[in-house]
Specification:
This protein has five helices and 15 strands. By secondary structure, it is α+β, with helices and mostly antiparallel strands. The structure holds 2-amino-4-trifluoromethylsulfanyl-butyric acid and cobalt (II) ion.
């Protein structure tokens, strides 16, 4: 079995992941009007958990045991502010402040299958440099997605992402990657954000992966935050993160998660 343990699925299973992705995408639209200066990040987390359970699904991060941690993650959302790259913690004592950028990262489990998504929001008025970082990071995700089709090389994705990011003198860590996603949140193969065209594994049809560039303004180096969970840039420069769950098809990527509910909600404020 060449793809032993990889999330290469039949349509029936992919439909469940698509349904999980739909709940997740609508969750982001529901949260968007609340991602404003003064917002309490623990309240955002509670709202997210209620929304997911009301939809008959489960928050996939809550209770999840990441491979390199010694304890399960305690919340529904990762809320990573400014220099935090991933795994920032919601807390009743952490309120959003105008000028910050905040990544909301969330996973949903439905009938044993997972979808994973992240989006970095501006909080109030942000600096031109922060705005540029958000734009470049999201565009790098789309450039990675455009490389996806059955038979393409994994390295094509990372090459497209990093080539674009580098042209703005922004940085990407080689320590954090995307991943297969399906019966578990994190499955093989890794989906690196840096790569060489024509290198790495070839993508099989119906493989489900999360593509998730994390981009820093400054150094590519990362370290652990003081809370013991968050991962931040070593030089405390800003970081952004956009993630979609996609299926590898013969004709290209089928993107299961969607930023449309976010964009609709943003157009109304
Ligand atoms: N969202 C991360 C990813 O996209 C996983 C976070 S799992 C957690 O791969 F439980 F640590 F939050
Ligand atoms: Co992910």
């Amino acid at each position: 079995m060449k793809y032993e343990g990889w999330p290469v699925y039949e349509e029936k299973q992919i439909r469940i992941i698509a349904a999980a992705a739909d709940i997740l995408s609508r969750l982001f639209g529901y949260l968007t009007p609340h991602i404003v200066p003064g917002a309490n990040t623990a309240e955002l987390d509670a709202m997210a958990e209620e929304f997911i359970r009301r939809e008959g699904a489960e928050p996939a991060f809550k209770g999840y045991q990441p491979p390199f941690e010694d304890r399960p993650y305690p919340y529904t959302l990762c809320v990573s502010i400014d220099e935090e790259v991933v795994h920032g913690l919601p807390s009743a004592s952490r309120h959003l402040v105008s000028g910050q950028i905040v990544t909301i990262d969330c996973g949903v489990r439905l009938e044993g299958f997972h979808a994973d998504m992240a989006y970095t929001f501006p909080v109030g008025q942000i600096s031109p440099q922060a705005a540029k970082l958000l734009q470049v990071t999201q565009e790098s995700l789309w450039r990675g997605i455009r490389q996806v089709r059955a038979g393409a090389f994994m390295g094509d994705i990372g090459h497209a992402i990093f080539d674009y990011v580098r042209s703005y003198n922004f940085a990407v860590s080689d320590q954090l990657t995307g991943h297969g996603v399906g019966e578990a949140m994190h499955m093989p193969p890794d989906v690196p954000n840096i790569g060489k065209r024509g290198k790495g594994v070839r993508l099989p049809e119906n493989l489900v992966i999360a593509i998730e560039p994390m981009v820093h303004v400054g150094s590519r180096r990362i370290c652990r935050g003081a809370d013991g969970w968050s991962v931040r840039t070593k030089d405390k420069s800003l970081a952004a993160h956009f993630e979609h769950t996609v299926v590898v098809r013969r004709s290209g990527a089928q993107v299961l998660t969607s930023f449309e509910p976010i964009q609709k909600a943003l157009a109304h404020v």
